[in-house]
Amino acid sequence: MAQGRIWRPVEVALPHKRAKGSFEVLKMEPEVGSFMPYSDSNVDSEVGSFMPYSDSNVDSEVGSIAWTKELETGIDVLDEQHRRYIELLNDYIEKVTEYDRTPDIKVIQLTESLNFLREYAKEHFSAEESIMKDAEYPDFETHQEEHLHFLRRVGELSKDMDTKGFSPKLSREVNYYTIEWFIEHILASDMQLVEFLRLNAGKRR
Question: Which fold has domain 72-203?
């Protein structure tokens, strides 16, 4: 298992990308009790794929994930949740490292850690969708479909890990969704939402 390697998001040219200092930080908190809970039937429904997985370009071994300024949306609640997600992700990565090195870590501990990460992502997505609903975000359904796709696929991978055991192939796809997919989702879809909120901040009642 690689040690000390820090994964950092690749610089991408996005037209909606926030320039540093280009607008006032938005401080939006969803109302208590306004989160939209998921049901398993919705999560497991078929939705269009987003950034399809390719086994050829994903590592099965990764080091800890670093938070970078590039991931900051400027919306306090989202940034706090994104940071927490990365903390939980690093907990999972650490357990995978221990699994490779010692028999003390069992597959059930890996699946429990992955399920906990998925559950937190579910809560985060609900908060994000509450903000989108409140702002009448026009791309809400497309953005939500991305969330559903992530939850459905990570749930399937967790079940595979529980029934078939841990393998480098499975690890590569888990790493793809929990690391690359999630970070690209922040850099692309979340930043597009942030740009919409910025442009419409003065119109909010």
Answer: Four Helix Bundle (Hemerythrin (Met), subunit A) (1.20.120)
